[in-house]
């Protein structure tokens, strides 16, 4: 898929040419899961897989949406319909971006959009944020808003929270908007300070594999929201603004303090220990030693599986099979309950690790996973 192909498809759908094509990537999160909704630290990197939006401005305030990847024809949203709860399905994400821009006081009329995406839906690779950021960048370009990338990420998050109804943090949108090629993004989700950490695995003889289990998840069904609410309740019980404020050295005391609150201690243990793992991986990347990050990835998966309870048998099997075949480390990435895992391995062992994972899935009677290598890629940009 190319920008030129997206522009040609736009003309085929709408009968006129587009004014440009904008693209944003999916992401994998190397370490730091469910920490962004607790004001913590995360470390995503952008995938080479991208969502492209071909766009043309409209003066009448209407939003017309078409996707090459979703069933149905053109979805039309009138100005009166542009409010939370009125637009359903995939169209809620780009519609929410237009709504968020207008709510923030930006002079944005309507648009015709055609969407084509390489980012698989439901794979835990943040297809929604890729769509939101590509749409935000397109509307910014069409109307000359000149908004900075972090502001586009903030508005896209508001679109997903308030319009699409998914209580996500800001990691995914920031990764799609701000990542740099060859780097992982260290993000403080409280003050949004960013640092780009070197992540050129080829130079170290390493490979990062993404394993899409093909088990679909829908964070809007409530599991994500329940865990977020549980973390917020635990923070209130501990008298802190967010679980990020619990020092790692005081973790055991915090868990003891929450003995009377069912499940709260496990949530706190994951979030606090995961923030510490992000710190440790950042130090390793700064020191030029990404290989040593492997065991921290595996430890993060165990925490997500046992304490946060957001894994599933297929994700656990990826980690077990990959590490059993010699991978340096592996963990689920994204919201869990399906989706994808990342595997860090030495380059010479990568093929054997992939075979071990696919064989384990076949033996267990699961559908074959999709396994592909990835590199840290650039964030959103205009392509045409």
Description:
With 384 residues, this protein is of the alpha+beta class. The chain has eleven helices and twelve strands. The protein has helices at residues 3-14, 92-103, 127-142, 149-163, 171-178, 223-238, 251-257, 264-286, 294-306, 313-324, 350-364; strands spanning 20-31, 41-58, 63-67, 75-77, 110-117, 183-188, 194-198, 206-212, 329-333, 340-346, 370-374, 381-382. The strands form two sheets. Strands 1, 2, 3, 4, 5, 6, 7 and 12 form an eight-stranded mixed sheet that branches. Strand 3 and strand 4 (75-77) form a beta hairpin. It is globular and about 60 Å long. The two termini are 13 Å apart.
Name the features.
single chain; 384 residues; eight-stranded mixed beta sheet; 11 helices; globular
């Amino acid at each position: 898929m190319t920008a030129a192909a997206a522009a040609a498809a736009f003309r085929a759908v709408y009968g006129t040419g587009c004014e440009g094509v904008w693209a944003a990537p999916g992401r994998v999160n190397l370490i730091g899961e469910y920490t962004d909704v607790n004001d913590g630290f995360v470390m995503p990197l952008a995938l080479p897989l991208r969502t492209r939006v071909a766009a043309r401005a409209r003066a009448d305030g209407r939003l017309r949406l078409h996707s090459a990847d979703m069933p149905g024809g053109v979805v039309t949203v009138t100005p009166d319909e542009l409010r939370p709860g009125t637009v359903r399905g995939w169209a809620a994400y780009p519609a929410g971006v237009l709504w968020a821009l207008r709510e923030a006081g930006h002079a944005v009329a309507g648009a015709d959009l055609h969407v084509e995406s390489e980012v698989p839906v439901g794979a835990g690779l943040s297809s929604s944020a890729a769509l939101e950021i590509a749409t935000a960048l397109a509307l910014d370009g069409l109307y000359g808003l000149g908004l900075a990338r972090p502001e586009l990420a903030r508005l896209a998050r508001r679109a997903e929270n308030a319009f699409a109804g998914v209580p996500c943090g800001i990691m995914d949108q920031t990764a799609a908007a701000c990542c740099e090629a060859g780097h992982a993004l260290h993000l403080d989700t409280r003050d949004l300070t960013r640092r780009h950490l070197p992540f050129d695995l080829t130079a170290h003889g390493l490979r990062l594999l993404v394993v899409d289990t093909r088990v679909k998840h829908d964070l809007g069904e409530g599991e994500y929201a329940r865990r977020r609410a549980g973390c917020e309740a635990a923070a209130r019980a501990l008298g802190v603004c967010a679980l990020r404020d619990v020092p790692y050295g005081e973790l055991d005391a915090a868990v003891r303090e929450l003995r009377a609150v069912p499940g709260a201690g496990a949530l706190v243990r994951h979030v606090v220990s995961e923030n510490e793992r992000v710190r440790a991986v950042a130090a390793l990347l700064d020191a030029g030693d990404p290989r040593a990050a492997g065991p921290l990835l595996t430890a993060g998966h165990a925490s997500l599986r046992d304490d946060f309870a957001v894994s599933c048998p297929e994700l656990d099997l990826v980690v077990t099979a990959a590490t059993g075949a010699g991978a340096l480390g592996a963990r689920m990435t994204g919201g869990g309950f399906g989706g994808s895992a990342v595997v860090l391995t030495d380059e010479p062992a990568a093929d054997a690790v992939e075979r071990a994972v696919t064989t384990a899935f076949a033996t267990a009677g699961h559908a074959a996973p999709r396994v592909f290598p990835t590199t840290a890629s650039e964030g959103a940009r205009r392509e045409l």
